[in-house]
């Protein structure tokens, strides 16, 4: 048994048709015919009154005679078509010559019916016209809905962009500034994220009057997901952790590794180079968790710290039971230690392939006489050019100097 329709059920609105005809007989005939078809009708004997109504009310269709006093049907069609949302217009004409019909269509009429008209033909033309009107209205409604969704989406994207910009600003605020450290040591940095948010994060700070701590962390991938994980890991590596004051580098890294989480289960991991430097002896305790080997920049040469001097261990997040062990490296006088992320040398040129570590080492050697900030700018810019200014990965650089060297840190004239 069918349920009765609710009184609140929306009824389909009957199309509203305007008849403009100066002949009383034909106007009554047209009105009666349209009423019998179930349409709402408005009848006018002249175009002037019709136009006043058109400007104030929504009309779906206008049926107008061609020959009328004062304002003709042709002039009425021209005025109608100049409206923002013109109704569908059928022009009644007693002349069926092609030139006459072309003139009517060019004036703005959508269709025409010759007089005297056949009732069946007029019905068909009205039905066809209202189908077009209905499709236009449906399309307009869909466009309105799409525009509303688009506006909502644009606002969402705008809000998201603002959130990303704020997060990027916060991320940059966490990075160390170029600064003097204890006992004349210095740190100089450069950071070029591939997107607004990066998976790289690094830090360098005084632990006490004799020691400094530093690390460079690179979470696999880049963008929002990688940056969120890097934020989490940075908190666990912050200078407030007691392990820094206790000089317990292995304990700190093992704890970070045990707490590492990959909520997306997408095989994410992080490489880490972390160390504590004794600013009196230039002795550096280091742990490399799958990170690119640091580079020593000195007056007599530029070279990687090799695997015998610093054994590379598993990246963070690969195995929770892995036990990280630190190693001691002696930094020579007037030498600097360069930490960097793999985005610096793994960038690829469309024609010449990978940038590579050999090219990186060569470029550092050739430019090592530059002041520290200009050296890092030169390295990041050369990588940017190599990848044809299309960022492929985050680039982080941190140069830690054991002492001031006049010819390196004096600005070029």
TrEMBL record:
This is Response regulatory domain-containing protein. It comes from Shewanella sairae. Residues 132-170 form a coiled coil. PROSITE patterns: RESPONSE_REGULATORY. The modification 4-aspartylphosphate is found at residue 65. It comes from the Bacteria. Keywords: Coiled coil, Hydrolase, Phosphoprotein. It holds the Pfam family Response_reg. InterPro entries: Bact_Sigma-Reg, CheY-like_superfamily, PPM-type-like_dom_sf, PPM-type_phosphatase-like_dom, Sig_transdc_resp-reg_receiver. Residues 16-130 form the Response regulatory domain. SMART domains: PP2C_SIG (SM00331), REC (SM00448).
């Amino acid at each position: 048994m069918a349920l009765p329709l609710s009184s609140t059920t929306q009824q389909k609105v009957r199309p509203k048709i305007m008849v403009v005809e100066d002949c009383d007989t034909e106007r009554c005939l047209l009105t009666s015919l349209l009423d019998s078809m179930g349409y709402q009708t408005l009848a006018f004997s002249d175009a002037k009154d019709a136009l006043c109504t058109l400007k104030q009310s929504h009309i779906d269709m206008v049926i107008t005679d061609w020959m009328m006093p004062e304002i003709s049907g042709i002039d009425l069609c021209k005025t109608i078509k100049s409206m923002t949302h013109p109704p569908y217009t059928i022009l009644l004409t007693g002349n069926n010559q092609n030139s006459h019909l072309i003139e009517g269509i060019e004036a703005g009429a959508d269709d025409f019916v010759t007089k005297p008209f056949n009732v069946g033909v007029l019905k068909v033309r009205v039905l066809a016209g209202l189908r077009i009107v209905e499709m236009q209205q449906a399309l307009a409604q869909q466009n309105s809905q799409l525009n509303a969704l688009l506006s909502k989406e644009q606002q969402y994207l705008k809000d998201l962009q603002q959130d990303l910009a704020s997060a990027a600003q916060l991320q940059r605020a966490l990075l160390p500034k170029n600064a003097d450290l204890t006992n004349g040591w210095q740190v100089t940095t450069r950071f070029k994220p591939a997107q607004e948010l990066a998976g790289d994060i690094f830090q360098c700070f005084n632990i006490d009057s004799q020691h400094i701590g530093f690390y460079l962390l690179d979470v696999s991938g880049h963008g929002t997901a990688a940056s969120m994980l890097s934020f989490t890991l940075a908190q666990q590596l912050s200078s407030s952790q007691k392990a820094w004051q206790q000089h317990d580098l292995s304990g700190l890294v093992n704890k970070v590794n045990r707490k590492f989480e990959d909520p997306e289960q997408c095989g994410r991991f992080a490489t880490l180079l972390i160390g504590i430097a004794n600013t009196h002896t230039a002795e550096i305790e280091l742990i490399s968790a799958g990170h690119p080997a640091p580079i020593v920049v000195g007056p007599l040469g530029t070279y990687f710290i090799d695997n015998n001097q610093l054994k590379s261990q598993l990246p963070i997040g690969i195995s929770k039971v892995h036990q990280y062990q630190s190693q001691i490296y002696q930094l020579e006088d007037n030498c600097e230690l360069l930490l960097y992320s793999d985005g610096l040398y793994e960038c690829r040129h469309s024609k010449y392939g990978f940038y590579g570590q050999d090219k990186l080492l060569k470029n550092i050697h050739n430019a090592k006489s530059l002041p520290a900030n200009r050296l890092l700018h030169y390295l990041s810019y050369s990588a940017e050019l190599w990848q044809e200014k299309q960022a492929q990965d985050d680039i982080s650089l941190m140069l830690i100097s054991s002492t001031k060297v006049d010819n390196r840190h004096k600005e070029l004239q």
